[in-house]
Design a protein that fits this description.
The chain is an all-alpha fold. The chain has 2 domains: about 1-35, no CATH class; about 35-135. The protein has 4 helices and no strands. The longest helix has about 60 residues, at about 70-135. Residues about 15-30 have low confidence and may be disordered.
């Protein structure tokens, strides 16, 4: 039995290394974790897209800053960089709060379903036990 488990582990590791996938991808979405709902995934994608756009914009402003010749131009660009950063941080905080709130809602929803699932599992176990005793 240990040999089978070891072979399975080596095979999974090989798939990860050779296949270019992550360990979580081998076991599914997060190795035992359920896949995130579509709305949460959309929020996370928006977060990533906003971050990429922000970085691109800031890099362009930094290039302009390096090419600026007058003090006034440099100061204006620095102010714009600072303002963009503050706006970005605020928008990211708002998105993170939305995601956090949605995840809390899902946890509450799952908690209610968890109790129901446990009760159903107990009932199935009782039914299986009584059937086993009947034979």
């Amino acid at each position: 039995m240990k040999t089978v488990k070891l072979l399975a582990l080596v095979a999974a590791l090989g798939v990860c290394l050779l296949g270019g996938t992550t360990w979580a991808a081998v076991g599914g979405p997060g190795f035992g974790r359920p896949q995130l709902p579509a709305d949460v995934q959309a929020e996370l994608q928006k977060l990533k897209a906003d971050k990429a756009a922000f970085i691109t914009q800031q890099q362009a402003l930094l290039k302009q800053l390096k090419a600026a010749t007058t003090k006034e131009d440099r100061q204006a660009l620095r102010d714009q960089l600072k303002e963009n950063r503050e706006k970005f941080i605020e928008s990211q905080k708002a998105l993170k709060e939305d995601i956090r709130d949605r995840m809390q809602e899902l946890r509450k929803e799952f908690k209610n379903q968890r109790e129901q699932m446990l009760n159903e599992a107990k009932e199935k176990a009782k039914d299986a036990k009584t059937r086993k005793g009947e034979n």
